[in-house]
């Protein structure tokens, strides 16, 4: 296939510097979901770690490089998950981390960033304004700007999920037991990273990216094969609510994604509710995008074996209760 920015040897090397707490996450078939979805569903659970999202894989790679030979300070813009992850990885390596976020970001995410010891600056705008402010801080202070998806290390970290999926197939010594992977699409690190590994090592697996209708910039860009921006976003899935795709990331996505689909807010909420009631999982909206895609196109997935990556569980519980309509109490 054509070359993406990623290299599998570098991805394998990246795995060696990632704290094992982020690696080897569970992958299991969730039979309780299947009657309502009409297909076999396996979950790759990326929330059982100290930052409750897959982002720690990438920030571990970034922080390791900075600790070895870079400035010992970094700044990023974040809707919350990247900021938590960079704060966690930086704290463990003695780095000074600043996170810029929208003051409208999920409160639970902002509180956790502070608790992890990072400096937090809030802007009166959306994630794109936070990106501009983080860039200005980096220039002024002469520190490392960590840009999710554009920085190849964030993609390499996410790509280690793809290694784990492929290795499971190789260990089985058979054809892939799953034939499609549903991946939340925001900036693109997760989709391009996992997609690169799958297309290289398990090309028969369909790579399907999923984005909310209310934040469609990357999907529209993928379909048009050129960068298209939007003036605003309107979705509860804050973790994927970007307006301006990064050209280099789009180029990678064009090489590894078989499809990109948009889903409605009602389907995202239904997916969250199903993951709670049938899998015992409290997830943020972005993590339910894969289930939402199946709900909206059952015929496409009927009889197939689909893997969905549950990518984050950092959610404001008050908002979660409003969306899902039931408290995530203890289940027997």
Shape: globular
Mean pLDDT: 94
Query: Biggest sheet, in brief?
Result: 6 strands, mixed
Task: Please tally the β strands and state the result.
Answer: 10
Output the number of helix runs.
14
Distance between the termini: 48 Å
Alpha-carbon Rg, integer:
18 Å
Model regions low in confidence, pLDDT < 50 over at least 5 residues: 327-332
SSE pattern, N- to C-terminal: HEHEHEHEHEHEHEHEHHEHHHEH
Order of strands across the main sheet: 1-2-10-7-8-9
Helix content: 40-55%
Q: How would you name the oligomeric state of the polypeptide chains in this document?
A: single chain
Relative strand content: 15-25%
Structural class: alpha/beta
Please describe what this structure looks like:
With 332 residues, the protein is α/β, with parallel strands linked by helices. The protein is 46% helix and 16% strand. The chain is built from 14 helices and 10 strands. Strands 1-2-10-7-8-9 form a 6-stranded mixed sheet. Helix 8 (189-201) links the parallel strand 7 (180-184) and strand 8 (206-212). It is globular and about 55 Å long. The protein starts with 7 loop residues before the first helix and ends in an 8-residue tail after the last helix.
Overview features:
332 residues; alpha/beta; 6-stranded mixed beta sheet; 4-stranded parallel beta sheet; 10 strands; 16% strand; globular; disordered C terminus
SSE layout and pairing:
Layout: H1 8-17, E1 27-29, H2 34-37, E2 40-45, H3 55-69, E3 73-77, H4 81-92, E4 96-102, H5 107-115, E5 119-123, H6 127-141, E6 144-146, H7 152-172, E7 180-184, H8 189-201, E8 206-212, H9 217-224, H10 247-256, E9 259-263, H11 265-279, H12 289-296, H13 298-301, E10 305-310, H14 317-324
Parallel strand pairs: 2-10, 3-4, 3-6, 4-5, 7-8, 7-10, 8-9
Antiparallel strand pairs: 1-2
Helix pairs in contact: 1-7, 3-4, 3-7, 4-5, 7-8, 8-10, 11-12
């Amino acid at each position: 296939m054509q070359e993406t920015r990623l290299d599998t040897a570098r991805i394998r090397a990246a795995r060696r510097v990632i704290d094992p707490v982020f690696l080897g996450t569970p992958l299991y078939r969730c039979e309780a979901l299947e009657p309502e979805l009409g297909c076999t569903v396996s979950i790759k659970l990326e929330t059982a770690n100290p930052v409750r999202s897959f982002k720690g894989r990438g920030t571990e790679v970034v922080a390791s490089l900075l600790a070895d030979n870079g400035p010992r300070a970094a700044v990023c813009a974040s809707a919350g998950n990247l900021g938590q992850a960079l704060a966690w990885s930086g704290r463990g390596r003695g780095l000074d981390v600043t996170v810029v976020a929208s003051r409208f970001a999920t409160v639970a995410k902002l509180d956790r960033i502070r608790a992890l010891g990072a400096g937090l600056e809030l802007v009166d705008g959306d994630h794109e304004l936070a990106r501009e402010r983080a860039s200005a801080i980096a220039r002024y202070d002469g520190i490392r700007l960590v840009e999710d998806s554009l920085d190849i290390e964030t993609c390499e970290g996410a790509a280690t999920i793809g290694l784990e999926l492929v290795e499971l197939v190789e260990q089985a010594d058979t054809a892939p037991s799953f034939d499609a992977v549903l991946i939340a699409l925001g900036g693109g690190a997760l989709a391009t990273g996992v997609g690169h590994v799958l297309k290289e090592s398990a090309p028969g697996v369909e790579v399907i990216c999923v984005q909310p209708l209310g934040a469609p910039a990357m999907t529209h860009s993928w379909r048009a094969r050129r960068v298209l921006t939007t003036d605003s976003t309107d979705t509860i899935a804050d973790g994927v609510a970007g307006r301006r795709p990064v050209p280099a990331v789009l180029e990678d996505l064009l090489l590894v994604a078989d499809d990109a689909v948009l889903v409605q807010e009602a389907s995202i909420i239904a997916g969250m509710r199903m993951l709670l009631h049938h899998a015992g999982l409290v997830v943020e909206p972005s993590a339910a995008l894969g289930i939402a895609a199946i709900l909206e196109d059952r015929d496409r997935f009927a009889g197939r074996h689909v893997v969905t990556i549950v990518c984050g569980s950092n959610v404001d519980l008050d908002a979660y209760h409003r969306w899902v309509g039931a408290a995530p109490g203890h289940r027997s």
